[in-house]
Design brief:
Elements: H1 9-14, E1 20-23, H2 42-46, E2 52-56, H3 62-70, E3 75-79, H4 83-96, E4 101-105, E5 120-126, H5 144-153, E6 154-164, H6 167-179, E7 183-188, H7 203-210, E8 216-221
Parallel strand pairs: 1-4, 2-3, 2-5, 3-4, 5-6
Antiparallel strand pairs: 6-8, 7-8
C-alpha cells in the first residue's frame, strides 16, 4: 500500500532548512549530467572537519539522531529518498537542534552528485529493504552498483556497518561485498547474544527483537 502524502508536506519540508541539506526534486532526472552536481561544503555546514558518517535509508531518523548524540566528535547525515518519511526525521531534529546531524532527501545512487569522493568515513545500512525476489536484486543496497557508489564515497579507511533481520539478504550481502573488493570483519549471526557493545537499536530492530528474531551484523572495509 502506498503511504498517504502527509498534510502540508511541501510547507513542512521548506520549514526544515536548518537540518535538511537538500531536497532532490522530480526535475533532477531531466537535467544534463553536468547540471546535476550540487556538492555540499561540509565544513561550512557543520563548522568543523570532523568525520562524516552516513545513515542510508534513515527512515524517521531515530538512529541518525541517537548516533549523533552519542558521538559528538562526528557529523551524521541521514539519507532518505521518501519525502513523506524524512520530514519526520527533520521535525525530530528541530526539537533538539543537534549541531552534528543533518539530512539529505535524495536517492542513494545519486549521492556522488552531492558528496565529494572519499569524504565519508562510515556508512550505515540498517535493515535495508531485502527485495526478496531475485528479479529485484539490483535494488538491494548491497548490489554491486550501490557498492560502486560506496567505494567512491568512502575514505581510505572507511567502513560499512550493516544490520538486518533477513538471513537471505545477509547472505547475499556477504557474497556481494566479498566479490566486489570488500573485506569483512566482526560478523555476527545473533547480535543480541554477542559481545558487541554500544549497539544503537533502530525502530525496526526493536520490533524484530520483540518477536524473537536474530539480528545479523557485519562490518566491511576496502
Amino acid at each position: 500500500m502506498r503511504m498517504r502524502r502527509k498534510k502540508n508536506l511541501d510547507e513542512r519540508i521548506s520549514s526544515c532548512d536548518r537540518h535538511l541539506l537538500f531536497v532532490e526534486t522530480a526535475d533532477f532526472y531531466q537535467k544534463e549530467h553536468s547540471e546535476r552536481f550540487n556538492l555540499i561544503d561540509f565544513r561550512k555546514v557543520f563548522g568543523n572537519d570532523n568525520p562524516i558518517w552516513l545513515d542510508l535509508g534513515c527512515g524517521k531518523g531515530g538512529f541518525s539522531l541517537e548516533t549523533a548524540k552519542r558521538n559528538k566528535e562526528v557529523n551524521v547525515i541521514g539519507v532518505e529518498k521518501i519525502s513523506n518519511v524524512i520530514i519526520e526525521a527533520c521535525e525530530k531534529a528541530a526539537e533538539t537542534d543537534p549541531d552534528n546531524c543533518m539530512f539529505l532527501n535524495c536517492a542513494v545512487e545519486n549521492l556522488p552528485y552531492y558528496i565529494q569522493k572519499g569524504k565519508i568515513e562510515r556508512i550505515f545500512l540498517n535493515f535495508s529493504c531485502p527485495y526478496p525476489k531475485h528479479t529485484y536484486k539490483n535494488r538491494r543496497f548491497t548490489y554491486k552498483n550501490f557498492l560502486k557508489v560506496y567505494k567512491y564515497l568512502l575514505s581510505e579507511n572507511g567502513e560499512i556497518h550493516l544490520k538486518t533481520d533477513n538471513m537471505r539478504f545477509f547472505e547475499f550481502s556477504l557474497q556481494s561485498l566479498s566479490e566486489n573488493g570488500f573485506k569483512l570483519k566482526n560478523i555476527s549471526l545473533d547480535l543480541q547474544n554477542s559481545d558487541f557493545k554500544d549497539n544503537i537499536e533502530t525502530e525496526y530492530e526493536k520490533l524484530f527483537i520483540s518477536k524473537g528474531l536474530p539480528i545479523y551484523r557485519l562490518e566491511a572495509y576496502l
